[in-house]
Design a protein that fits this description.
about 400 residues; D-Maltodextrin-Binding Protein, domain 2; four-stranded mixed sheet; about 15% strand
C-alpha cells in the first residue's frame, strides 16, 4: 500500500474511461484489459511483462495505467455497469470489499486457487473472503525505517531499535532532523501496534482502536515530536510529499516508508549512491509493521475470463515476479522467486524479506479501507496537538461503530 493522496495519475483518468464505456466489457474473449494501478516508475515494467504474457499466451493485452487513489471507486462504478477492466491490480485491502459486492470472479475452483503452495501466507490470506479465493498475490510489502547512512555515521550512531533509543540519539542528529513522521493513516499502524494494539478484533467482533495498548502506542509518536526528536507536516494532504522531500534533501536522517519509495529516493543527490540508503526494522514494535501489497482480481462477468486467468498465471509466475523484483525492488509473493540469484542479491529485497515475512496481518474484511479513513483524521489531529490520543481514538471507535462496523461492540 502507498499513500492514497500522493499517488499520481499516469496515462488517463479512470472515470473518463468508465464514462466512455472503455476499459473492457467489449465482448472480445481474446483481449485482456488490465488496469495497472502502480506508480509511473513501475508501470513501464508491468506493461512490458503484460505485453510479453499476451504475445506468448496467444491473446491480446491492453494495459491502462490508472491512478491508485481513484481506481477503487471508479472500478466499482464501471463494474456495476458491466464495464471496467478484465483484470484489476487491487490493493490487498480492497479484495474482500469487491468480493462482498459481487464485482470480482470467484477463483476457488480454478487452477489459480488450487496451486498456491509457493505463495507466502500473509499475502495469500488477503485474497480470501468467506472461505473462497478471489485473487492472486502480485507483490507484498510492509514498512521499514529508511536512514541516511552517511548522516548516522557522522553522528556516530546506529539505527535505533526502540523509540527510546531514537530519543537518545536525536540530539546528535540535529533534534527534530532525526525523523520525519508521515501523518497518513497507514503510517500510524506501526505506532498503534507498538504495545500490542490493533484496529479491531475480527474473531470477537470487537473494536479495539481505542484500547489502552493502541492509545499508548500512538502517543509514542506525539511524544517524539514533543521531545524534539522528530518532525511532521501540519497539512495532512501533503505530509507524504513533505516527508520524501525532506529525506531526499538531507534535511532529516530517517523516515518510515515502504519498498515502493526506493526508486524515488535513489534519484536524489543524497542517495545517488544507493549504498548510502540504509534499511532497518521500524523501532519499538512488539508486533511488526502492516502487510501491504497488491493482488490480481478478475471482474465478474468479464468476457475474457479464460484469457484473464492465463494472463494472471503468467504475470504471477515465479519468473516474472523475480523480474519485477530485480528491476523495481518490489517484494515477490512467491517463495521460489526469492531464490533467484538476482532477487536474493538485491539489497532492497533482501533487507525487506524478513520484515515482510513477519508483517502484521490486517483485518481482511470488506470494511478494511473504511477503517483507515477515520484513523487518518485521528492521527493527524494527535500529531498536530489538536486532540489528545485517547480522545481522538475514542472518536475513531465511535465512528467505526456508528458508520463502519455497526454490528461490532466497543471495547
Amino acid at each position: 500500500m502507498r499513500p492514497m493522496a500522493t499517488v499520481t495519475a499516469a496515462l488517463g483518468l479512470v472515470g473518463a474511461l468508465a464514462a466512455a464505456g472503455c476499459g473492457g466489457g467489449a465482448g472480445n474473449p481474446n483481449e485482456v484489459v488490465f488496469w495497472d494501478t502502480s506508480g509511473s516508475s513501475e508501470s513501464a515494467v508491468f506493461s512490458e511483462i503484460a505485453t510479453e504474457c499476451g504475445r506468448t499466451g496467444g491473446y491480446q493485452v491492453r494495459v491502462e495505467t490508472v491512478a491508485f487513489d481513484q481506481a477503487l471507486n471508479n472500478y466499482k462504478t464501471a463494474a456495476q455497469g458491466g464495464q471496467g477492466p478484465d483484470v484489476l491490480r487491487a490493493d490487498v485491502g480492497w479484495v474482500a470489499q469487491l468480493a462482498q459486492a459481487g464485482l470480482i470472479h470467484d477463483l476457488s475452483n480454478t487452477p489459480l486457487a488450487t496451486d498456491t503452495g509457493d505463495f507466502l501466507a500473509a499475502p495469500l490470506e488477503s485474497t480470501k473472503y468467506q472461505g473462497k479465493t478471489y485473487g492472486v498475490p502480485q507483490v507484498t510489502d510492509t514498512l521499514a525505517l529508511f536512514y541516511n547512512k552517511r548522516q548516522l555515521a557522522q553522528a556516530a550512531v546506529d539505527p535505533p531499535k526502540s523509540w527510546d533509543e531514537l530519543k537518545a540519539i536525536a540530539p546528535k542528529l540535529g533534534g527534530d532532523r532525526a525523523l520525519f513522521i508521515n501523518n497518513d493513516e497507514y503510517y500510524a499502524l506501526p505506532f498503534l501496534y507498538t504495545f500490542g494494539g490493533d484496529l479491531v478484533d475480527t474473531e470477537s467482533r470487537l473494536i479495539t482502536v481505542n484500547s489502552p495498548e493502541a492509545v499508548r502506542g500512538v502517543q509514542v509518536a506525539k511524544d517524539l515530536l514533543d521531545a524534539g526528536a522528530a518532525r511532521t507536516a501540519l497539512d495532512q494532504p501533503n505530509s507524504y510529499t513533505s516527508m520524501k522531500a525532506a529525506f531526499t534533501a538531507g534535511e532529516v536522517a530517517m523516515v518510515i516508508d515502504g519498498p515502493w519509495a526506493v526508486s524515488e529516493f535513489v534519484q536524489s543527490e543524497q542517495f545517488a549512491d544507493p549504498a548510502n540508503l540504509g534499511i532497518a526494522p521500524v523501532p519499538g514494535s512488539a508486533t511488526p509493521s502492516p502487510v501491504g501489497g497488491h493482488d490480481y482480481v478478475i471482474r465478474q462477468g468479464s468476457d475474457a475470463t479464460e484469457a484473464s486467468m492465463k494472463f494472471i498465471q503468467c504475470m504471477s509466475s515465479a519468473e516474472h515476479q523475480a523480474e519485477i523484483a530485480g528491476k523495481l525492488g518490489l517484494l515477490p509473493t512467491r517463495r521460489s522467486a526469492y531464490d533467484v540469484p538476482e532477487v536474493a542479491q538485491h539489497p532492497v529485497v533482501s533487507a525487506f524479506r524478513p520484515l515482510a515475512a513477519n508483517a502484521h496481518n490486517r483485518p481482511w474484511i470488506p470494511e478494511n479501507s473504511e477503517l483507515l479513513e477515520p484513523l487518518q483524521t485521528a492521527f493527524a489531529d494527535i500529531l498536530a496537538g489538536r486532540k489528545d490520543a485517547q480522545a481522538a481514538l475514542d472518536e475513531t471507535a465511535r465512528t467505526y461503530q456508528t458508520s463502519v462496523l455497526t454490528d461490532y461492540a466497543q471495547r
